[in-house]
Amino acid sequence: MKLESMQRRLYGRYKLIIDESDDESAVRLLFQTGIIDPNQTEVFRMSDFSDDINNELRNVEILSTIKLCMETGKTILMVNTGRIHGSLYDVFNQNFSIMATGDTRKIFSKVAIGSKTVDVVVNDNFQCIVHINRHEFDDIPAPFLSRFQKYSLSIVDFYRIQFQRLSSEEQNIMNNVENKMQTFIKHFGQQYLYGLNDNTLYSCLLLVIETDENRQCSISNIHQSYSQLNIKTKRFIEENPGNKQQCLLRFILSKLIQIASPESIIFKLPTFQDKFAQSLFKNYFQYQEHFNIENFVRELIQKHENQSSYPITTDTHTEINTIMTTKVIIYTRTSPYVVGINKASKYQLFNKQNNNTFDENINDLVEILNLVSSSVILTIYN
Prior knowledge:
With about 375 residues, this protein is α/β, with parallel strands linked by helices. The protein folds into 3 domains: about 5-155, 3-Layer(aba) Sandwich (Rossmann fold), CATH 3.40.50.300; about 155-290, no CATH class; about 290-380, no CATH class. It is built from 16 helices and 15 strands. Strand 5 (about 105-115) and strand 6 (about 115-120) form a beta hairpin. It is elongated, with a radius of gyration of 25 Å. GO terms for molecular function: ATP hydrolysis activity; ubiquitin-protein transferase activity. InterPro entries: RNF213.
């Protein structure tokens, strides 16, 4: 027999997440904000490489795992899985059948796995979430969209969710920081901040909000939020360590100016008050690296190699254990000096002057993953 209409309404349609960020930020933030329980959720991603597109065996493996999740009542999050949606037609439509014996019942749905269609038990706790990017929305057939409850989510939406969970005092602090940063962006000029969009600021604001196991939010401890990449900026951020709002403001400002060009910093410095202009100048030109990839990587590797836990001692002799960053994307202003993903290019980048022990260690610890006309992606190995 079929699932009755009342029970179908109680069961609820499955969810379609329309990601406004276009870089799958919604997937990460669903977990980060505690909306999805990582312990009860399986994420399925499919790539667009030619070998994967035509890999029927891989499709069968994914569908078999989804079948297991349906039976055990887990939540599945499907990202870029359009190639197997046809196999889950009855699941998405909740075209369920019921087998009842006495006081017990089982719900079944059909799933096409390979050349066979099988009846799969659907646990009452099973939930399905399908993720799509905004630019894909117009190309998706209306009948497919009508099967789901649809949610359009941007980074701003996630920030507002987290913001509402803060105490009133911390909400006031975050409001002040947001307003001051908006004023800074307007004064500095959005055109001088490379890649800045409507989500950039709120992505930075989200970084300073942490969620506990009870989904309660609070502003994170800025004094413990440094990595080996930005520990030098501590002098700029904590100029007045007792002023929480100022530390937050400077923490976000320090991140934002990383995407500013040196020319724009020089051009805009005279428009700020002398004291602030001087500290901003030092932060950008002395505490951050914007000119030489080799210097950046040498410093990163040297600290990574010599100080595995990277303890930092402040002026008050309080030890801070920083977060270790091992993968970076470096955006270059022109075509990168390195022109190929091979040993010769690594040698040119890191061994061109002195072939000493430290240079050899860099080659051992650094792998160039990808090169394009405007960026270099590096991975640092332990």
